[in-house]
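In this section we walk through a basic example: taking a raw amino acid sequence and producing a predicted 3D structure, encoded as discrete structure tokens. The instruction is simple. Fold the sequence below.
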Amino acid sequence: MKNLTIILKEVPEAKYDEMLNVLPPFYINILNGEVVRGFAVSEPYNHIEREEDKKWVPTFIAYINKHGKFYKVINPVYFLTPFEVKTSQTILN
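The resulting token sequence is shown next.
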């Protein structure tokens, strides 16, 4: 399994809080094998073929809080387990 680079865009805390409260979040504890504190917006962004098992799965927009700063994960994420996500190869604007 290849690990993709996590592309982060710093966002204001107000944007992080807005997105956290817009829909019920899916909480994230692990992103590409790294322990993080964050969430994915619960409405799917897109669907991709997961490389691990070739099943089509939804991708989500994610936000993380890292070292007191707030970030949007520019690669949509998909779930490997209920709290573990991996980035897709798609890049968001």
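Looking at the output, two observations stand out. The chain has a mean pLDDT of 84. The first strand starts at residue 8 and ends at 11. In the next section we compare this with other chains.
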